[in-house]
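Blackboard transcription, Thursday session:
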Amino acid sequence: MPESQPSDVRSERGPDERAADHAAIDRLAAELLPSLVAKLGATGLGELEVREGSWRVRLRRPAEPSGGPGGPAAGASSGRSRRNPDADRPERAGERPLRSAHHPLETVTARTESRGVATSPAVGIYRPRTDLTVGDRVRAGDRLGAVDMLGVAQEVVAPIDGIVGASLVESGDAVEYGQELLAIELVPSAGVSTNGTS
Amino acid sequence: MFRKVLIANRGEIALRILRACRALGVEAVVAYSEADRESLAVQLADEAICIGPADAKRSYLSAPAVISAALVTGCDAIHPGYGFLSEDEGFAEVVAAHDLTFIGPPAGVLERFASKAGTRELLNAHGLPTIPGSVGMLRDDLHALSEAERIGYPVLIKPSAGGGGKGMRMVRTPRELESALRVCRSEAKAAFGDDSLYLEKWLDENRHVEVQVAIDRYGHGVHLGERDCSVQRRHQKILEEAPTPALDDAARAELAARAIRAAVAAGYENVGTLEFLVDRNGDAYFIEINCRIQVEHPVTEALTGIDLVATQMRIAAGEPLGFSQADVTFTGHAIEFRINAEDPDHEFRPDAGRIERYLAPGGPGVRMDSHLYSGYEVPPYYDSLLGKLIVWAPDRATAIARGRVALEELVIDGLVTNVAIHQALLTSDSFLEGKMTTNLLDRVGSAAFLAAAARAS
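(Written on the board underneath:)
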């Protein structure tokens, strides 16, 4: 969990500096870390990074594969560098979502029962799996891609067994929570074989 | 000023912030949970983005979701409103790390004032009297008992974190203290994730008076007068007014002047509220600072004509305040009624459901800040505030008269509201004489207030 490392080159350091390093590590462990751990726990953030002098301490929550609320968030620095080029096209995310995004599964079953729609688990940037194409067979729960929320992938999964249909948004688009991303067509006959992996 | 602001809140305050943004010519994006898709703020917004499910922990309280929403919509600032993430220094810090501006005090300032006990010490050192209380947090039951003995019963048990009356109990004996400590600890732990408690001397028959301040980044600050929030039910404010009937003009001016001096000296920044308890001798004791825009801010806006949300945004954007204390004038009297979906006949049980019909009152000096509309479905997941009715008049008696008319005119059909308790207050001698104290409603009982009002009418 807690990693601490000097950001400069170790080999050039003398015994005095090394002693100072050890003292700094002791102090960090005794004073800084407990308060950081408490802070991380309290905020629901995924990662915290603190710099002090030549030292940097980063705490990261263990990953939650289902991408729950406490899922790991990118640290302060990575969020900046990963800012999406589409960020200046906010109208995509700002468009009024389809009403069916409310309860995607219910709506789908109510409609024709021949189609499902994978929806976004988070607000962020959509990154579909690149190895899936229209016509591929998938099973309910298969990973179809991810939504990047502050640098952390939140999985997009197939709601039903079926065949990959039309993409409703493009890779790199900003998407909101619950937004429809990818259509999954119901397989007409029995005996679904899975092509996707999870 | 900002180019585009993400509004990370809901209900009436989301609407209030949206209006402030529009008045300033700033674009706004309303972030909403699935349960708030049909909310008025979402409908009126130029742009809205769904950030998560109804569960606030995964939407309005999720720092990653809120920040991600701000980034993908191209916002340069986030307004947290009140509650939720509004006073979370960790959130403010991460917002800043993503090159966004947190509209409120900077993270370092929030951190300095995060602990109530620490803040009392700090502001006490800057000249504000505080209520005698325990030294530091209570270590264990034994420590609590000895501190209570030293302070003198009755004492109030208070949690270091949070507010809203959770984890708070008044106790009169060591026996009561011992059993209440357990309850307070678990309540505080559940509500705020922190079970540290401290003790304060209980002041019988106290008034709650708070001072609004606005301080820019350059240490230039003004006070915007005080508000009286003594009408409370179980430590929850339900009606606020200004000026306070508890103090004369000289005492009010003195309190406000001391509050702004201390807040500036302690390094506070942006709009904030210093809360005081005033005892029957008129002595004011500092209790806590609220580092956010408050529900009752319109009371101050009515008296000063200053848009507090816009002021908050301008300060966060780094602008100088642009006016001095001498420029701030106070006119008339204002009262705010919090209209809640609560049933006064059933222990103020919260209600939710469809608003069949909604009509807002109007007329001179009447302001209704509400997110209701006819046909709106009030979701059951959040607080019960339906809106705030604010009346202003040149004097208190006229403000009360306007309040009666406006409450009469207000129509909210479809669910139960607490309007009856406000109407009862406006006929009660305690309120009319300006003698409400924070425990009066609980001591006398809301039912008795309602019954008295029914007899009077």
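Lecturer's comment: Residues 15-43 of chain A form the longest helix (29 residues).
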